[in-house]
Amino acid sequence: MSSENRLLIDGKLQDPASIELRDLAAFYKEMAPRITWAIRNTLGHQYVEGGDVDDIAQQVWETILKNWERIGRITAPHKYTHILAVNVAKRAAMRRNAVVTVAEVNTAIDPCSTDPGPEPQIEARSLWRSLRKALAPRQVQVLALTFDGYGDKDIAAILNITTDSVRSHRRHARKQLTLDPTPLHPHD
Q1: What angle do CA 111, 63, 110 make, to 5 degrees?
Q2: In the 8-state DSSP scheme, what is residue 15?
Q3: Do 24 and 75 touch, CB atoms closer than 8 A?
Q4: Residues 6+ positions from 182 with CB-CB distance below 8 Å
Q5: pLDDT single digits (tens) 36-76
Q6: CB–CB of 100/126 below 8 Å?
């Protein structure tokens, strides 16, 4: 079987027909309360810009539905779904008044970097807007997940690509950002 017909399931390229696909309706019925609980537990009583618990749960279910062909076949979809819900809730909470330092951006672009860089703060939204203009979409996704603290293996699993591709996207993004004379944010 060609690799284009295979899916990344449990960290390995596998033939999707060899693993039974779970019933989405039954999975939803079982997991909906758990996802709501995970989001509420993660957020506490924080106000989150852009929605409440139901809106965040909707984002989680949209991701699950979009990737159900793969998620419905993995060994532990419950665990994956719980982690996804917690991470979406954390990102929603972090977007609220998010401010990052240039050193944190440099570390996200090059995790091996030892240069802390300058300490001025920039607003995260303007930074990501600028990065989206300068980089390919997959490069921005890899940088965002790296910045959120994910390792190469986790990023590869989330984006359904190999760890070599993750490193390649990060390397090309770093190269593009060092060659691009446009500033990362409008205050430069």
Answers
A1: 10
A2: -
A3: no
A4: 130, 134
A5: 888 888 877 665 544 678 888 999 999 999 988 888 888 88
A6: no
